[in-house]
Amino acid sequence: xxxxxxxxxxxxxxxxxxxxxxxxxxxxxxxxxxxxxxxxxxxxxxxxxxxxxxxxxxxxxxxxxxxxxxxxxxxxxxxxxxxxxxxxxxxxxxxxxxxxxxxxxxxxxxxxxxxxxxxxxxxxxxxxxxxxxxxxxxxxxxxxxxxxxxxxxxxxxxxxxxxxxxxxxxxxxxxxxxxxxxxxxxxxxxxxxxxxxxxxxxxxxxxxxxxx
Length: 212
Known about the structure:
It is found in: Nucleus. It comes from Fistulifera solaris (Oleaginous diatom). This protein is α+β, with helices and mostly antiparallel strands and about 210 residues long. It has two domains: about 5-75, no CATH class; about 105-210, no CATH class. It has helices at about 20-25, 30-35, 60, 70-75, 90-100, 120-125, 135-150, 190-200, and strands spanning about 5, 10, 40-45, 50-55, 80, 85-90, 105, 115, 180, 185-190. It has a two-stranded antiparallel ribbon with strand order 1-2. A two-stranded antiparallel ribbon has the order 3-4. A two-stranded antiparallel sheet has the order 5-6. Strand 3 and strand 4 form a beta hairpin. The chain is elongated. The protein starts with a strand and ends in a 10-residue tail after the last helix.
């Protein structure tokens, strides 16, 4: 009884595998052709999930490697917005466009004004000096940092966790780059930059804007 090659996906007889590859077991064994670099190399498309031959990928996509390569069909298929029908050549452009359709239901963490489409927009409103309850520039940046410092769930997003007093106040000086992505460790000067990064790159919303 044969088995499927883990590389090309074809059903092969035992004679099509070396003893070493056969002993690795079903789901791991690779046939002679694939081990020797023959013309039957296959991999699953990172977009559609189908197991396709190298001829069904452009050279550029193939060399991106397993788990990243997208087949020609997926690369050439435009992404459509289910809200307005506009089409885009890649998923990133579609996700950027989808922000246009978000409801304005996020509130400013300082003044409570609820008219923003994302947490990044709300924090930018403070950092740019648009908030009625705090001045712009460094003072606004400091207010945001102190607000975030009081939320335990935000501590994993901060490069340094400040010491709080008994009544929850923070008197430490704000670092130059106080925020950090816990997934890829990129540091940011402004919280709005971290919020935008988390939303667009990791599809995550930070917990600080759930309440005032």
